[in-house]
Design a protein that fits this description.
With about 325 residues, the protein is of the alpha/beta class. Helix 10 links the parallel strand 7 and strand 8. Helix 1 crosses helix 7.
C-alpha cells in the first residue's frame, strides 16, 4: 500500500495480492476448477435474484454442495428462500467480516439441505465505501499490480473457501460498479439475465464493458450466456427477435439460452410470499388450480434453463481442457 494511505485505515491488500498471484499460477497450471457463477446485469428488475435462488435450489437438489452469496444490499435472497428475519439473515455481516476484517468467509447456515447462504444487506454499505476508498488510493500507486489489486478483495476471500463447495453462486447488485468488478474478478462464468427492453439491454452492455476490464485480472473468466426473462410464453416470434437482438449486442460471444423464463405475476407473488422457488411450490395441495398451473409451468422453465446452464458449463469446461491439452 502507498505510505500516504497507511494512516487512513483502509485494508492492507498484501494478502489479496498474494492470493491473486496464486490463482494466476493455478490457472496457468490448469488447476483452477471452474465453479463460481456470477449472475449479474447492469439494471435491476430483470430476474437476477429469482434466477440465483432457483438455480441454487436446483443444483443443491442434485446433491451438489452449493454456496449462494448475495452481493447486494437488497437482501432479496432471504425473501426468495424464506429466511428473512431468521438466524440466517445477518444483514451482510459475514461478508463485511471477511472483506474488511480478513476473517474466513463463513455461511450463516443452510437455507436448504446442501445450500449454504451468505446473505446481503445493509452491512454491504461499509464494503462499498471501502472499495471506493481503495479505488481512489490505487490511482496514486506506481505499479499495475497495486493499481488493480483492490478489485481482487472478494476473489481472495472466495479462493480461501472455494474448495469447500461444488458450486458458488454470486448474486450481484445491479447498480454497484465496484461490487460487479469484484464478482467478475472472483468468478469463473458469467450468467446475465435480461429482459427485452432497451434499458435491460443497455445494462447487459454495461456488464460486457466491466467483463472486459475484469478479464485482465481473471483470464479464466468466461461469458456463459444470457437468460431472457419476462416474456409471454406463447410469443415465440417475440422471443426469437429478443434472442437475435441480444446475440447482436454480444457480437456472438455468448449464447442466448433457448429457454426463456415467462412472467406470471401471481406465481411470482406466491413464491416470494411463501419463501419458496417455483419447483418447491409445485407439490403443494392448497394452491388454486390456475395458480398451480402457472407455477408448474414456471418451474418447468427454470428446470429447463438449469439443464441448459449445466450443459453450457460442461461445454466450456471441455473447451478449456482441450485448450490445455493443446498447450
Amino acid at each position: 500500500m502507498n505510505r500516504a494511505f497507511q494512516g487512513l485505515g483502509i485494508v492492507d491488500l498484501s494478502r489479496v495480492k498474494t492470493a491473486l498471484q496464486r490463482r494466476l499460477h493455478l490457472m496457468a497450471e490448469g488447476l483452477h476448477a471452474s465453479k463460481i457463477f456470477v449472475i449479474v446485469n447492469g439494471k435491476g428488475g430483470v430476474g437476477k435474484s429469482s434466477l440465483s435462488a432457483a438455480l441454487a435450489v436446483a443444483l443443491s437438489k442434485l446433491g451438489l454442495r452449493v454456496l449462494l452469496m448475495e452481493m447486494d444490499e437488497q437482501g432479496n435472497n432471504g425473501e426468495d428462500l424464506g429466511f428473512t428475519g431468521s438466524d440466517l439473515d445477518d444483514g451482510g455481516q459475514a461478508q463485511a467480516a471477511a472483506i474488511l476484517d480478513g476473517k474466513p468467509l463463513t455461511p450463516t447456515g443452510e437455507a436448504r439441505p446442501n445450500l449454504y447462504v451468505i446473505p446481503g444487506g445493509a452491512a454491504l454499505e461499509d464494503i462499498i465505501e471501502e472499495l471506493y476508498c481503495q479505488r481512489r488510493a490505487a490511482r496514486f500507486t506506481n505499479t499495475p499490480e497495486d493499481q488493480t489489486a483492490w478489485m481482487g478483495m472478494y476473489a481472495s476471500a472466495l479462493d480461501a473457501v472455494r474448495h469447500l463447495y461444488d458450486v458458488i453462486i454470486l448474486d450481484v447488485a445491479p447498480g454497484s460498479e465496484p461490487l460487479q468488478l469484484q464478482a467478475l474478478v472472483a468468478g469463473d462464468m458469467v450468467l446475465i439475465p435480461s429482459r427485452s427492453d432497451p434499458s435491460s439491454r443497455k445494462g447487459l452492455r454495461t456488464v460486457a464493458r466491466r467483463f472486459a476490464r475484469a478479464i485482465a485480472l481473471n483470464p479464466a473468466l468466461r461469458l456463459l450466456g444470457v437468460a431472457v426473462f419476462g416474456t409471454n410464453s406463447t410469443a415465440t416470434k417475440v422471443q426469437s427477435n429478443i434472442k437475435d437482438q441480444l446475440a447482436a449486442d454480444l457480437k456472438g460471444n455468448a449464447p442466448v439460452f433457448d429457454q426463456c423464463i415467462r412472467h406470471v405475476e401471481s406465481a411470482a407473488v406466491a413464491c416470494r410470499s411463501r419463501g419458496k422457488v417455483p419447483q418447491e411450490l409445485v407439490g403443494l395441495k392448497d394452491l388454486d388450480p390456475a395458480l398451480h398451473r402457472s407455477i408448474k409451468a414456471l418451474a418447468g422453465d427454470y428446470k429447463s434453463l438449469a439443464m441448459e446452464v449445466l450443459q453450457a458449463k460442461a461445454n466450456l469446461d471441455a473447451g478449456h481442457h482441450h485448450a490445455g491439452d493443446a498447450a
